[in-house]
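Entry 12.
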Amino acid sequence: MSLLMLLVACVQEDELVASTLLTEASPHLMCGEAPTPMAVDEVAPDGRTPGEVVAPFVGTYEAPLVYRDDSATDLTFTLTLGSAAWVTWTPPAEDPAMTCPEEGMLLRFDATFQSADGVFDEAFSEDRTAAETDGASLYFGPYLPMASLGGSFTYPGADTLSLAINVGPDLFVGEAIAIVPPDGECGIAAFNTDLMTGCAP
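Predicted 3D structure (tokens):
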């Protein structure tokens, strides 16, 4: 199983496990940062510009969003480059033996997740290193507090909306999941795949 598929599976099973795996896959998340902001067309020490790095992934993705009851609406997902920086990473003071990348490009992706029926109208941002964009796809897995959602989505007892999204030049697949504390979840809707998360109290 690829790391990408493993991350998707863990998001569906447990927020803490998914967060741990993402941190292990992206060790820079725990490292200290010394960033130098970059323009989108600025050439980095590795010879690439931020615009070139994100080009395979930014843009607008569209697909039918199918709910658990088989009703459907149109989904639009947009991904843009919010900011970029050339970063020198250092081990955190509490773990000086941690292995950190020496330096590299750090990219902030801004995303919107909107359904035509108004149930979902969400926005979030996530950071990725340039090295993490070298594959054929990118995974985004935000956990959005119900109190801050922009759409009309609600679910009994849920305090969080989890989105599991994979994008790439020929890929747009994922699902929306309601998280019910302490350990319940329910797959609400999916796009370009069947619902992979059941409903458990």
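Annotation: Confidence is low (pLDDT under 50) at residues 1-25. The helical segments are 3-13, 15-25, 50-54.
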